[in-house]
Design a protein that fits this description.
Elements: H1 3-33, H2 38-52, E1 56-61, H3 68-76, E2 97-100, E3 108-113, H4 123-127, E4 134-137, H5 143-150, E5 156-159, H6 161-166, H7 175-184, E6 187-190, E7 192-198, H8 202-205, E8 208-212, H9 216-221, H10 223-230, E9 235-241, H11 248-258, E10 265-270, H12 282-300, E11 307-309, H13 312-321, H14 324-330, H15 332-386, H16 392-434, H17 436-450, H18 456-499, H19 512-530, H20 532-537, H21 540-599, H22 603-636
Parallel strand pairs: 1-8, 1-9, 2-7, 9-10, 10-11
Antiparallel strand pairs: 2-8, 3-4, 3-7, 5-6
Helix pairs in contact: 1-2, 1-15, 1-22, 3-13, 10-21, 13-14, 15-21, 15-22, 16-18, 16-21, 17-18, 17-21, 18-19, 18-21, 19-21
This protein binds guanosine-5'-triphosphate and magnesium ion.
Magnesium ion (MG) binds at residues 68-69, 87, 92-93, 212.
Length: 651
């Protein structure tokens, strides 16, 4: 394997682990320093988990026999010196296959029976239902046992027309099926619906997940793949073959399942070895390849730099035989370079700009908090040191002063409590819109709108209406969000003007991700409804399944947004609340120590000593936070990785 891709993925994992350690150190500190920080601690824990479980998903999507599995073998599994995942002429991979590593389980392959398609339960649901899967253990030291086990991915069985219909796999336009039915009265269908391969390969251990898919038939039959799994992949690798060129069904897969709904796309023109011809010069072969690349890029509306020509078969062979010349000629090194730089690099960028920024801003807040506390303690120390040799009347004056500011302050706190109550009332109303109960009503209405006919026209109309409703809802939430934000801002201003608190502007609630995700679902639905095969044959089974999968997706989007809104609501007043408590504690401390000194002059020195000790401890904490922050800021800088800005991968 090319070192750059391997190295890049491993480096990325090391970076995540180091960052996770810094975050964990900060979380420990926070727990001890601020007993009221459980919300932040929980969030930090979530971030640590997200870093640990972070996945980089590469989906291989194409019509059958274009060489997806061969490319996966060549890219990731050549060290087993054989074709580990089964790849053969004709339709080979029968079920979508996810290859990954999860150390909570032994190496194994898990298979979901095709009959599960008869129920409305989603693939995602089955993933959390272990008893539904058949499991084969993998002996990782025995390539032959593994190869044998992997053959299950291509298992098929003969069933009657009724049975094929019952699992929603009968397709009267599929020639292979109709011919089989005529010839033997039976149809071949896959034995398994989905395969999960848990495999301890170093790259998979670093968080890489590979998704291998069968051709158009399976994609069309399992809407959840397009709606959820493929559209969530970090990059989709679309493969065509030089011998067939871009066919009609290639184009259909591209437009329906990839084109507009995937973030990063790489197109590969495979099997260039077929063009290698002893009677042609290398220049002639190169010219033919370039011409095919240009034509493919035009057809797919991609930049030519996103289309690469390869021979997966020769790449696998070259790696096994350690033939560097053939490896270079196979074109696979360019694919590895592109994946390393653009896909891994881009993923790294996303984490840097989101998680690192979020945690470092939390550390900055803590640092600011400690600085303020230090300043307060210093002025308190000054006050006490100035009392040395002074008479009791001065202390009495100071006590009156503290008590006056306490009264003044309590009045503001009462205003804060009122405002905070109003905000939590508004917040409840806002969250109510995003709750599953409200969504289920919307989904029920959509289902009603489609009626019993399950037609594409009905589906399209109902989804459009649903999206329109959620758009209005997002606007309503935006309005409520800015109302809350304004009310919070007034409270911040009140404390800034009356008690010299730091003036801050509370964060806004951002609903743009929600709207974008809903719009993406609308686009996928439109493509599905436009597809002539779905329109002409009116596949009720499929449309029903599509609607169900769509419903699950919308549920996820609502749940994510609800969680975000909850966090935002908690954060909108949290910094102010923290300052209010801190200020109260300062006033309490000040008046308590003045009272002690008023009663007994000897207490002055004890109080000074205690404050000095407290100052020293705060200073040590401040140094520790500075170090942590510095480390995080360094982590936030791009390393020597290329960023996602380059045009090489269509985003
Ligand atoms: N000549 C040549 N044949 C290739 C190349 N890559 C794959 N093949 C052959 O093409 C056939 C199909 O390859 P697969 O990897 O099974 O294709 P797939 O896209 O995974 O196909 P399905 O699993 O059926 O969806 C196999 O016989 C491969 O050996 C290549 O670069 N050159
Ligand atoms: Mg395959």
């Amino acid at each position: 394997m090319d070192k750059s891709l391997n190295q890049q993925i491993t480096d990325f994992k090391v970076w995540r682990d180091e960052l996770s350690q810094s975050i964990s150190a900060y979380r420990d500190w926070l727990g001890k320093a601020n007993p009221e920080s459980s919300l932040e601690e929980l969030r930090l824990y979530d971030i640590e988990q997200a870093l640990e479980r972070d996945k980089l998903i590469l989906a291989f999507v194409a019509e059958f026999s274009r060489g997806k599995t061969e490319t996966i073998n060549a890219l990731f599994f050549s060290e087993y010196e054989q074709r580990l995942l089964p790849s053969d002429p004709g339709r080979t991979t029968m079920c979508p296959t996810e290859v990954f590593w999860d150390d909570r389980e032994e190496p194994c392959i898990k298979l979901l029976p095709i009959e599960t398609r008869k129920s409305d339960d989603s693939l995602n649901y089955y993933k959390s239902t272990p008893q539904a899967w058949s499991k084969i253990r993998l002996e990782i030291n025995s390539p032959s046992q593994m190869k044998q086990a992997f053959l299950s991915i291509i298992e098929q069985k003969e069933v009657s027309l009724d049975e094929a219909r019952a699992v929603g796999l009968w397709d009267e336009n599929d020639q292979v099926m109709t011919q089989a039915l005529q010839a033997k009265g039976k149809i071949d269908i896959p034995v398994w619906r989905h395969a999960l391969i848990n495999f301890p390969h170093p790259l998979l251990k670093s968080g890489l997940v590979i998704l291998d898919t069968p051709g158009l038939n399976a994609l069309g039959a399992e809407p959840e793949l397009t709606l959820n799994i493929i559209s969530n992949a970090h990059a989709v690798i679309f493969i065509m073959a030089t011998d067939t060129g871009v066919t009609k069904s290639d184009m259909q897969i591209w437009t329906d399942h990839i084109g507009n709904h995937c973030r990063r796309k790489i197109a590969l023109l495979n099997k260039i070895d077929i063009l290698w011809d002893a009677l042609k010069t290398q220049a002639e072969v190169d010219a033919e390849i370039i011409s095919q690349i240009n034509q493919t890029a035009r057809q797919l509306h991609l930049d030519t730099s996103s289309v690469l020509a390869i021979s997966a078969q020769k790449a696998l062979l070259a790696k096994i035989k350690r033939d560097t010349e053939l490896l270079e000629r196979s074109g696979i090194l360019k694919v590895e370079k592109m994946l390393a730089e653009n896909v891994v690099g881009a993923k790294h960028d996303i984490l840097r700009t989101t998680l690192v920024m979020e945690t470092s801003s939390m550390v900055k807040n803590s640092r600011r908090f400690i600085q303020q506390r230090l300043a307060n303690r210093r002025s308190q120390l000054d006050e006490l040191q100035n009392l040395r040799g002074k008479n009791r009347s001065i202390i009495e004056n100071l006590l009156t002063e503290v008590s006056e500011s306490r009264k003044h302050y309590d009045a503001s706190v009462a205003t804060f409590n009122q405002g905070s109550n109003v905000i939590s009332g508004l917040g409840k109303h806002l969250l109510g819109l995003l709750e599953q109960e409200n969504l289920q009503k919307l989904l029920e209405e959509s289902k009603h709108e489609i009626g019993d006919s399950w037609s594409t026209v009905g589906l399209n109309r109902s989804i459009r209406k649903l999206i329109q409703q959620t758009r209005q809802m997002a606007e309503e939430i935006n309005g409520m969000g800015s109302n809350i934000q304004q009310q919070a801002e007034q409270l911040y201003q009140l404390f800034a003007s009356r008690h010299l608190f730091e003036a801050r502007i509370p964060p806004r609630l951002d609903m743009s991700e929600f709207t974008e995700r809903m719009a993406a679902l609308e686009m996928i639905t439109e493509a599905f409804c436009r597809d002539p095969v779905n329109v002409m044959t009116e596949k009720h089974f499929l449309i029903r399944k599509f609607f169900m999968s769509l419903g699950r997706q919308v549920e996820t989007i609502f749940a994510d947004t609800c969680k975000q809104a909850q966090t935002w609501l908690k954060q909108v007043l949290a910094p102010l609340k923290q300052q209010i408590d801190e200020h109260k504690e300062n006033l309490d401390k000040r008046s308590k120590s003045l009272m002690q000194i008023h009663q007994n002059a000897d207490e002055l020195q004890n109080n000074i000593t205690a404050l000095e000790e407290n100052l020293a401890s705060l200073q040590a904490q401040s140094v520790m936070l500075d170090k942590l922050l510095l480390k995080m800021m360094q982590d936030a800088k791009p390393r020597n990785m290329t960023t996602s800005a380059g045009p090489a991968v269509a985003a």
